[in-house]
Design a protein that fits this description.
Blueprint: H1 2-8, E1 16-19, H2 24-36, E2 40-44, H3 58-69, E3 79-85, E4 88-95, E5 110-113, E6 116-119, H4 122-132, E7 141-146, H5 152-165, H6 174-180, E8 189-191, H7 192-198, E9 211-215, E10 232-236, H8 240-254, E11 257-262, E12 265-270, H9 274-287, E13 297-301, E14 305-311, H10 332-341, H11 350-360, E15 367-371, E16 374-380, H12 401-413, E17 416-417, H13 418-424, H14 430-442, E18 446-449, E19 456-459
Parallel strand pairs: 1-2, 9-13
Antiparallel strand pairs: 2-4, 3-4, 5-6, 7-8, 9-10, 11-12, 13-14, 14-16, 15-16, 17-19, 18-19
């Protein structure tokens, strides 16, 4: 029941949809969209507010869906898990991401974009089709590598986290679990994904899978004498969960820290927000192109910034222009492994969290740079540890009451959407509210994140209340 409770507490998104009633056509569109994107779950019998409405006859639904899903080309294997609650029955449908491109009977192709299913055509369809082919490397067999190359303590740790997240999921023996998730083939060979997640020494066969941390004294690689030099270098190896843990520990040791008192609580403030650093690190490990040899993930700490570079360009249909709104995994099984482990809380939110954490701490938003063979996240310092944020401006005097309400809402909940603002001010026109937001952005009070329906706003500077 824990897993259902967790789903009912969330909002529809990249991997989650709610369907109060059985509407076969709409369900098929969502199943196809999930299978063509990142996979996901559909809660049938509950609405987006988490209310169980009942009225779902599990046996009838199962028969209808089994027949309907077969109409997809190629068919999608959907797992169905029933829950009986006092309010009625709920059916959770789990749709995997697959390597195929699935079409409806009428030829339409759907993909998941945020919390919506969108028909793909033209260039978008071409990119979607070609991107399916780029995800195969993580399932490549590694000749000579098998169960004996896995660290069974790491496997057991993963299994425990997975069981907490999915109490009803099949686990069985360790070997059965490894085969189930694709870490071992039916012939007992280790896959790239398996060795990266669980290998004792994965760098013996995949030397590019490590991470290098370097701390420089100044703002570039050359010191005061003009020669290249650094204060600390760490080459980090092992399975990727251990790489994440060790890299975070090294960054934590090297970041400036200071205890500050806010209100009645004493907090430890760090040079860069922990959330932003961890999200950038996990994203680099999860989404790098492991097929590219010769270069590891790099974390370079300078006097004024932290740079995290991941080999491989932006995957699939993700661009610098849509990076906040779109999500695509080059390594879906590796990503799912880190999700089960708890290193990723929810797909598609990493960039948002980085932006929010940096801005809330008084720093500029992260910078993103992409080339055909690398992607870099740059976290720049807007102030030193212990220094106060920018002083408040005099724009407070010109704010109307609606804008004050919006600002209070952001301070309480961390962000505000256009929909949130309309609910705060139900008797005001949408255009007036839009101009309110534009005004707050122009004055530097709020930062606009995302585009179109995915737009939301966060505070741009500390100390602005």
């Amino acid at each position: 029941m824990t897993s259902l409770t967790h789903l009912l507490e969330r909002q529809p998104g990249l991997q989650l949809e709610f369907s109060p009633r059985l509407e076969v056509d709409a369900l098929l569109e969502t199943i196809a969209a999930f299978a063509n994107s990142e996979g996901g779950q559909i809660v049938l019998g509950a609405d987006a507010a988490g209310r169980v409405l009942g009225g779902v006859q599990v046996d009838d639904v199962g028969d209808v869906l089994r027949t309907a899903v077969l109409s997809l080309k190629p068919p999608v294997r959907v797992e169905m898990e029933p829950y009986e609650l006092p309010q009625g029955s709920v059916l959770v449908l789990t749709v995997p991401r697959t390597g195929d491109l699935h079409t409806l009977a009428d030829g339409r192709v759907f993909a998941r974009r945020g919390a919506e299913n969108q028909v793909q055509s033209g260039a978008d369809l071409t990119v979607l089709a070609s991107s399916r082919l780029s995800t195969a490397y993580e399932m490549t067999e590694l000749p000579g590598a098998g169960l004996g190359d896995f660290d069974m303590d790491v496997v057991a740790e993963y299994a425990e986290y997975r069981k907490r997240r999915q109490p009803r999921a099949f686990v069985g023996s360790s070997e059965s679990l490894l085969r189930q998730i694709g870490a071992l083939t039916s012939d007992g060979l280790a896959t790239v994904m398996g060795l990266l997640l669980f290998g004792r020494e994965p760098q013996l066969q995949l030397p590019q899978s490590g991470l290098t941390f370097v701390k420089f004294a100044g703002s570039d690689r050359r010191g005061d004498t003009g020669q290249i030099g650094y204060g600390r270098r760490e080459d980090i190896q092992g399975p990727i969960a251990r790489i994440i843990e060790r890299a975070w520990q090294v960054v934590w040791e090297e970041m400036a820290k200071q205890a500050v008192v806010r209100g009645l609580t004493r907090e430890e403030e760090t040079e860069y927000p922990a959330t932003a650093v961890r999200e950038a690190l996990v994203n680099a490990v999860a989404h790098r192109d492991y097929h590219l040899p010769g270069r590891r993930i790099e974390m370079l700490m300078y006097r004024d910034r932290l740079e995290i570079t991941s080999p491989g360009g932006l995957p699939g249909y993700v661009t610098l222009q849509n990076i906040v709104d779109e999500h695509y995994s080059r390594n879906p099984r590796i990503v799912n492994g880190l999700l089960q482990w708890g290193y990723i809380e929810e797909l598609g939110l990493g960039i948002d969290k980085m932006i929010e954490a940096m801005v809330a701490a008084g720093h500029p938003p992260p910078e993103f740079k992409a080339s055909p063979h690398a992607f870099t996240v740059i976290l720049r310092k807007g102030r030193e540890v212990g220094q106060p944020g920018p002083r408040p401006q005099h724009w407070e005097q010109s704010m109307n009451e609606r804008q004050m309400q919006a600002l209070q809402y952001v301070q309480q909940y961390g962000r505000i959407t256009n929909r949130d603002y309309r609910e705060l001010c139900p008797n005001v026109s949408a255009e007036t509210l839009r101009l309110d937001m534009v005004d707050l952005v122009d004055k530097g009070v709020l930062l606009k994140v995302g585009d179109k329906k995915g737009t939301y706003y966060v505070l741009k500077r500390r100390g602005s209340s």
